[in-house]
Amino acid sequence: MKGRSPLRRRKPKLLITIMVAVTALVAAFAAQTAFADPEDRGNGNGNGNGNAEQLTAEEIVAEMQPGWNLGNTLDSTGDDETSWGNPMVTEEQLEAIRAEGFKSIRIPVTWSQHQGEGPDYTIDADYLARVQEVVDWALEDGFYVMINIHHDSWQWINTMPTQHDEVLARYNATWTQLAETFADAPPELVFESVNEPQFDDVEDAESHELLHELNTSFHEIVRASGGNNDSRVLILPTLHTSAEQVHLDPLLETIQGLDDPNIAATVHYYGYWPFSVNIAGYTTFNEEVQQDIIDYFDRTRATFVDNGIPVILGEWGLLGFDKNTGTIEQGEKLKFFEYLGYYANESQITTMWWDNGQHFDRETFEWQDPDLFAHVATAWTERSGTGSTDQVFLRTGETPAAQTVTLNPNGQAFEGLYNGDTALAEGTDYTISGDELTLSAELLASLAGDGSLGEQAVLEARFSGGVPWKLHVINFDTPTVADASGTTAELAIPTEFNGDQLATMEAAYEDGTAAGPQNWTTYKEYDVAFLPDEEAGQVVLPEAFFAEVNDNSTVNLTFHFWSGETVSYTLTRSGSTVTGSAG
């Protein structure tokens, strides 16, 4: 974690390991209405349809939809909120994100480096005042606000099995101070006991007992602290914020034992792990990836929502974004976000999108990827049509043939194909048969132009509602690679991408067994074992790849491109010396 770039989530290795095994859950659609249109819902401050003082926990959690995380800021583990690369929080930032339609904001806070020694564990007054300032700004903007104990979970709370009394004393002291500080805050402020709880070197059964102790102690401290804390909504997490049934059931037991109507549960979801990080050949949003969402939300809904306990998806996204947002191909990524937003809505689960600074630019107040945000935001109220692909590849130097894309209307009606503002002619430029959209050879030939490599046009399949589905028309030729030499610290393979894009890479020894990290699959993890760099014209194999390649071995690589092309390459390792040859 310490060596990672400032804009990464800083997810502990233990949690990542757990999420590999996590299979999704909760929420089959029951006979309850989906969340209201955000514009039709109150802001909880008496300025809209809602007033938190008069709402139940279920209503408050519903009012919090949709939510956003102010990630990698007050939760950073450095000297101040800028230590992980984000700017200081300003009123203008919060106003800007509120204007994008978000109704709640999760403000993760790490307290470790701002606390004194025991037995008082006094929080630095200036830091506490800064947190309070940001919370006040958010409340004034009409947000529901969630604060918590964040990365402390893996900094010191995780040692509770061996330092039980010390950890419990510090945890209690922290929440005692926070409860006192925010006792008179309006009910639009909610507390989350701890982020992603985890405990070192113990089995789940003991971990569940320790988490139960923390959650119930948190509940007791807050409820006894006076002011609005006697009825404030409190958010309790599962172990690892996982929605595996083995972790859901103990939290249900805890909540039911507290017999408090103002409690909600929280879990996190970062997708089906192989797809989420692009490993094992899971490059597309296929049925298995979609089913993981369904199972995850269905389990969560059945455990909590159907028992009258509201649920907040406190963080969600894709784990590959920890490295860069290009880990998953754009169209496949959009299908994931569209479907998750829809199914969370169906499941009556409030979502709070994790943003560590890579989505909403906190200086320009613009979205880094407007198409991604459009799919996220549209899913709050309706579905968007998608397609089997968002890429149409045309081999340069050849006359294009007609190509067919299968549309997924998702309840919308197809209304036409456009090139910019120009409506293309059905029957001439394209045909539609059921959900099969066929682009004519004549249309594609006109779009191919002079055959120059790269993107030539962006078509839009427009539907009766939702976001149009973009089709990127790309001229390409077979990519080529060249011989290279390097060391086990890094090998940069010269690559002519020729308009194509690398989807994944296989690595195998001469006997066919997997080479490199994660040797249970020949398909390696994107930006762990390999990273394409189109601008530099190379594919980089880093030290992490060679660290798990046998010495004095030959490794056969296969590069898989989105056009369907494959390119072979051979590596030879001898000590720290690596040579690569094409063909």
TrEMBL record:
Record's keyword terms, sorted: Carbohydrate metabolism, Cellulose degradation, Glycosidase, Hydrolase, Polysaccharide degradation, Signal
Question: Which Pfam families does the UniProt record give?
Answer: CBM46 (PF18448), CBM_X2 (PF03442), Cellulase (PF00150)
- InterPro entries attached to this UniProt entry: Carbo-bd_X2, CBM46, GH, Glyco_hydro_5, Glyco_hydro_5_endoGlcnase_B, Glycosyl_hydrolase_5, Ig-like_fold, Ig_E-set
What GO MF annotations does this protein's record show?
Answer: beta-glucosidase activity
**What are the record's GO terms for cellular component?**
cell surface; extracellular region
Question: Where does the record place the Glycoside hydrolase family domain?
Answer: 81-359
Q: Carries keyword Signal? A: yes
Secretion signal span: 1-36
Q: Name one GO biological process term.
A: cellulose catabolic process
Q: Where is the Endoglucanase B carbohydrate binding domain?
A: 477-580
Q: To which protein family does this belong?
A: Belongs to the glycosyl hydrolase 5 (cellulase A) family.
PANTHER family per UniProt: ENDOGLUCANASE, PUTATIVE (AFU_ORTHOLOGUE AFUA_5G01830)-RELATED, GLUCAN ENDO-1,6-BETA-GLUCOSIDASE B
Q: What is this protein called?
A: Cellulase
| Originating species | Glycomyces buryatensis
